[in-house]
Specification:
Layout (H helix, E strand, L loop, with lengths): L4 E5 L15 E6 L2 E5 L11 E5 L3 E9 L18 E9 L4 E6 L8 E5 L2 E5 L2 H8 L6 H10 L12 E3 L4 E5 L5 E6 L13 H20 L4 E4 L5 H9 L4 H4 L2 E7 L5 H12 L5 E4 L8 H8 L14 H7 L2 E3 L4 H4 L13 H12 L4 H8 L7 H12 L9 H21 L1 H4 L3 E3 L5 H7 L4 H4 L3 H10 L1 H4 L21 H13 L8 H6 L2 H11 L12 H13 L3 H20 L1
Parallel strand pairs: 13-14, 13-16, 14-15, 16-17
Antiparallel strand pairs: 1-3, 1-9, 2-3, 4-5, 5-6, 6-7, 7-11, 8-9, 8-10, 11-12
Helix pairs in contact: 2-11, 3-17, 7-23, 10-12, 22-23
């Protein structure tokens, strides 16, 4: 295991910030390129590392391959054959070139910067910025971050620091200049309309089981359970007779209250398979763990979203890996545009901005607008259009939105959030496995619309789990279609009961972290305390007004605005 990797080019490297607090140590050199690594520690579990070397190559694989590939020294010649959660670095000895390869969906993030005679590339963005001498903020990118809740395209907090795209083989010379950058995989949606629906369910079961059992491969596994469908689908495969115990399964769940629907449903799912489920009630933790949270996700996600921080150390005592079944809900549903005609890229960019702009972003835009050019929204729209360039082969509207969401939201938001798990153990990503991605690119949209295929899969292969309540509908998978018909009287009675016995219901992590004395003190420390770096961007009086309005009437709108301002301020204090 290592903490991170950092490659510098040219002279002048005087030590860069480390996610672990452990020093960087020189591991290899080729020409002017120097490869540094640091050790993992109790705050950051880091990456599995595999090294391979022959007369031509010295290769470092950070992460894990899900399918065997030998020899590793041939990887840069056959990148499309690699499947896993990884990034790969290679020194080509004779040419003194440095190669970096991201996997198909870019699940391990790598950053690059070149400024003057300095350049750097690595897995920890503050270290890359520091080594290359970049310190100017990218205000346009931060405004886009406020708008969507994630950075779009290749941008980061800094001018001159970019994230390397997914499915890309980059070649750099020994001075750090990019010689070439080639994409080795493109989106190409080709639904197989000739395959019957029932056969598609069977195929999903076969591929999903193959992916999961191959990934866990006798590891000690933590398995998150909740009230949704993706976690019970993983339990259906991993918690079957004998298999769950063979992989040392540790199911767990967490919620905001003692009687949380998430934890109640999780325990019920465990009972169905005879496996105890460890549950937690999340308590305020954020301001005690701010430095670790910010280091893990690097400020690329609203830091109030990182609930894993509360349980990750206890998970690390029980498991070496966690099955993160993220993005199953996207693959196994429609985007709401089935059957609609494909718009132009101009229209599509407008659809995306309207659909994915966050509630509350208007508050931040009014705060930020004096710092930005008048046309910053047009610049953002042009950038969204640019992100559509890699989706030209996708001819179906609904799947094109899904592909965009995967190539942007998933890449820049979801995968950043998974690093909070990585603070204690390494994530396994079944729904990012090439085999499942290839499967979903052949499934007609109407097969997955409304979660149809996943529901029928569970009914067929895990009827015991299908009979457990599905949280959004408050009934099981055999009855959920009555949500807006014969279940209406039951829902009305439940709503009346809640109104007769009113009590605050915590549904979001920012409510738990902010709406108490400790949270209020923490927000004031990061937003109002004199001398904060964020005041170089926004006057303290404006932040005071937003925070005061939030505490007077907390809503999803101002809750989002305050969370994003806290994220920016915490990042600025730590790395800005």
């Amino acid at each position: 295991m290592i903490g991170d990797v950092l490659i510098t080019f040219g002279k002048g490297f005087e030590g860069a910030p480390s996610r672990t607090g452990q020093p960087w140590a020189l591991a290899a050199a080729i020409g002017e390129a120097r490869l540094y690594t640091n050790q993992s520690d109790k705050r950051w579990y880091g990456f599995p590392l595999v090294e391979s070397e022959n007369e031509k190559w010295h290769i470092w694989l950070l992460g894990e391959l899900y399918e065997e590939f030998q020899p590793l020294t041939a990887a840069f010649e056959q990148p499309e054959e690699l499947n896993g959660h990884f990034v790969m670095v290679g020194f080509e000895k004779e040419k003194r070139h440095v190669h970096v390869m991201t996997n198909r969906l870019g699940t391990v993030h790598s950053y690059y910067s070149q400024k003057g005679s300095k350049a750097a590339i690595g897995t920890f963005s503050p270290a890359v910025a520091s080594a290359a001498g970049c310190s100017d903020l990218n205000l346009q990118a931060i405004a886009e971050f406020f708008n969507f809740g994630f950075f779009i395209g290749n941008s980061t907090y800094w001018q001159g620091v970019e994230i390397l795209p997914p499915a890309t083989h980059s070649i750099l010379d020994e001075a750090g200049g990019i010689l070439s950058q080639r994409s080795y995989w493109t989106w190409n949606y080709a639904p197989n309309t000739s395959k019957p629906y029932d056969e598609t369910i069977d195929q999903f079961h076969q591929v999903f089981r193959e992916v999961l059992t191959g990934q866990v491969n006798q590891k000690r596994i933590a398995l998150p359970l909740s009230g949704g469908l993706d976690s019970r689908s993983t339990l259906a495969e991993l918690g079957g007779p004998g298999l769950g115990r063979a992989v040392n399964l540790f199911p767990f769940s967490y919620g905001f209250t003692e009687d949380s629907a998430e934890t109640r449903i999780a325990r019920r799912l465990g009972e169905k398979r005879g496996i105890p489920v460890k549950t937690w009630t999340i308590q305020p933790y954020l301001f005690d763990q701010m430095e670790r949270v910010c280091a893990s996700v690097e400020g690329f996600q609203d830091i109030t979203q990182c609930r894993q921080a509360y349980v990750v150390d206890e998970l690390a005592e029980q498991a070496s890996h966690v099955v993160a079944a993220h993005w199953g809900d996207v693959w196994l549903d429609d985007m709401g545009f089935l059957g609609q005609a494909m718009p132009t890229d101009e229209e599509l960019a407008e659809v995306i901005i309207k659909k994915y702009s966050r509630r509350g972003s208007g508050i931040l835009q009014s705060l930020f607008s004096p710092r930005l050019p008048a046309d910053w929204k047009e610049v953002m729209k042009a950038k969204v259009k640019l992100t559509l360039a890699g989706l030209k082969e996708v001819a179906e509207f609904d799947f094109k939105i899904k592909a965009w969401k995967t190539s942007q939201w998933s890449w820049r938001w979801t995968l950043s959030s998974l690093r909070m798990y990585q603070a204690g153990l390494f994530p396994l990503l079944p729904f990012y496995d090439n085999r499942l991605v290839d499967f979903f690119m052949q499934v007609p949209g109407d097969f997955v619309a409304g979660r149809r295929l996943q529901i029928d899969y569970l009914k067929r292969f895990a009827p015991d789990l299908a009979r457990v309540k599905w949280q959004p509908f408050d009934v099981n998978l055999y009855k959920y279609k009555g949500f807006n018909s014969w279940l209406l009287p039951k829902r009305a009675i439940q709503k009346l009961g809640r109104s007769l016995i009113p009590r605050p219901v915590i549904q979001r992590n920012w409510e738990l972290q902010f709406l108490n004395e400790e949270g209020q003190a923490g927000l004031e420390r990061f937003l109002l305390e004199p001398g904060l770096k964020v005041h170089n961007l926004f006057p303290a009086v404006d932040l005071q007004q937003i925070l005061g309005g939030f505490y007077q009437n907390p809503t999803a709108y101002n809750g989002y605005a305050v969370s994003m301002l806290l994220t920016l301020s915490a990042w600025l204090e730590q790395y800005g």
